């Protein structure tokens, strides 16, 4: 027996969080990670969200839950590797609250407390399905992790195939681009926003054979100059928890779309679950409605940051009253129909007829539409 060595603020740093696993359910696959900067015991600490009203989950053990400086600890919803996505052991403790994907209106957060003292806390306003948010190793301290731009999407695979490095050092984020900038082959430059009428939504799959994992929509660049996908906001105007006010398309490297090019945004980036789509350019958190639905692409910097969120710059929006199971709704090919105004007319849409991917759904994701 010995006295517990409690951490002081700064002794533990939250370095990684998985709010939205893709391979397993959120109820079992959520987790977050801490790094010890000094030797400490975790006994008696509380795991908590400032954004909920529940009491912290206390770490209790008759044995010392000790970390030496440089060691990692993972806290998870489940200790069962068959249920939690294959998180490498050991798991230092479990929690019962739910992590949220995060938006400007409803940020995600997690914190470690000792009584009334916050040892460390982080917040985030966006995350991607199946990808942990990880702190760049160069910023592994309890002050630098307060800055969301010091985090990036994980790229290493663990367990059943989600991306993250639980219980291990994070991979480098590469060049971290400040807000409004992107990395163009090693050179930071301002993000090029779409010109007026350049971004056009050309196809949407609101009602796939398997919902919601196979939902997606497509845009094209109908303009004369390239624009970047970085920083675009993807949302439903009728969604009460929109992922706006912060970019939905987050990437350090510049993701440029040339004139005539196509990009797709999907519910899942996993080809095994999304119906065999071409590689999505980004994922979205909302669900597309089968009827009375809509989807829009906005400039998040033009959006209010409190609910209900409204935006003054909407690059394009389409809506539909009904949909057919397994068939996309696509704009009829042609210069006169491929505009942000023409695609407001339901008469300019037709059903997808070409099977794609796993051949269970019909459409032309990331390609010229093929309907009349």
In round numbers, the mean pLDDT is 91
Beginning-to-end CA distance, first to last residue: 78 Å
Oligomer: single chain
Task: Name the helicity range.
Answer: under 10%
Flag low-confidence runs: 241-245
Q: How many separate domains?
A: 2
Structural class: mainly beta
* Biggest β-sheet strands, sense, barrel: 6 strands, mixed
How many helix segments? 2
Number of strands: 29
Rounded radius of gyration (Å): 22 Å
Spatial order of the strands forming the largest sheet: 8-7-2-1-11-12
DSSP strand content: 25-35%
The backbone outline, from C-alpha atoms, is elongated
Give a written overview of the molecule.
The protein has 372 residues and is mainly beta. The chain folds into 2 domains: 12-174, no CATH class; 199-362, no CATH class. It is 2% helix and 30% strand. The protein is built from 2 helices and 29 strands. The chain has helices at 26-29, 81-84, and strands at residues 12-18, 31-36, 40-41, 46-48, 57-58, 66-67, 72-76, 93-94, 108-114, 117-124, 133-135, 151-153, 157-158, 162-163, 181-184, 187-190, 199-205, 216-221, 227-228, 233-235, 256-257, 262-266, 282-283, 293-298, 314-320, 329-331, 349-351, 355-356, 361-362. The strands form 9 sheets. Strands 8-7-2-1-11-12 form a 6-stranded mixed β-sheet, with no helix packed on it. Strands 23-22-18-17-26-27 form a 6-stranded mixed β-sheet, with no helix packed on it. A 4-stranded antiparallel β-sheet has the order 5-4-9-10, with no helix packed on it. The longest helix has 4 residues, at 26-29. The protein starts with 11 loop residues before the first strand and ends in a 10-residue tail after the last strand. The model is unreliable at 241-245 (pLDDT under 50).
């Amino acid at each position: 027996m010995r006295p517990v060595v409690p951490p002081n603020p700064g002794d533990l740093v939250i370095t990684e969080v998985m709010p939205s696993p893709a391979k397993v359910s959120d109820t079992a696959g959520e987790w977050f990670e801490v790094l010890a900067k000094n030797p400490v015991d975790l006994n008696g600490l509380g795991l908590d969200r400032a954004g909920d009203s529940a009491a912290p989950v206390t770490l209790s053990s008759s044995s010392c839950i000790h970390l030496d400086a440089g060691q990692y600890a993972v806290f998870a919803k489940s200790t069962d590797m068959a249920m939690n996505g294959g998180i490498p052991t050991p798991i230092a403790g479990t929690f019962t609250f739910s992590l949220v994907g995060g938006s400007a209106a409803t940020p995600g957060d997690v914190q470690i407390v000792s009584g009334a003292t916050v040892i460390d806390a982080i917040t985030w306003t966006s995350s991607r399905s199946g990808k942990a948010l990880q702190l760049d190793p160069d910023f592994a301290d309890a002050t630098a992790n307060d800055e969301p731009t010091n985090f990036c999407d994980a790229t290493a695979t663990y367990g059943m195939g989600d991306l993250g490095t639980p219980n291990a050092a994070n991979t480098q984020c590469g060049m971290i681009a400040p807000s409004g900038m992107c990395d163009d082959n090693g050179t930071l430059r301002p993000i090029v926003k779409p010109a007026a009428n350049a971004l056009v939504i050309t196809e949407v799959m609101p009602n796939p054979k398997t919902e919601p994992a196979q939902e997606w929509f497509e845009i094209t660049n109908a303009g004369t100059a390239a624009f970047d996908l970085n920083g675009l906001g993807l949302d439903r105007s009728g969604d009460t928890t929109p992922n706006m006010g912060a970019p939905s398309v987050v990437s350090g490297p510049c993701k440029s779309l040339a004139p005539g090019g196509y990009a797709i945004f999907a519910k899942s980036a996993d080809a095994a679950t999304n119906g065999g789509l071409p590689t999505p350019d980004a994922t979205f958190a909302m669900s597309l409605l089968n009827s009375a639905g809509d989807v829009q692409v906005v400039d998040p910097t033009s959006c209010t940051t409190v609910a209900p969120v409204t935006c003054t710059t909407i690059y394009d929006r389409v809506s539909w009253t009904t949909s057919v199971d397994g068939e996309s709704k696509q704009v009829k090919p042609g210069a006169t129909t491929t505009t942000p105004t023409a695609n407001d007319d339901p008469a300019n849409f037709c059903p997808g007829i070409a099977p794609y991917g796993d051949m269970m759904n019909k459409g032309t994701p990331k390609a010229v539409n093929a309907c009349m």
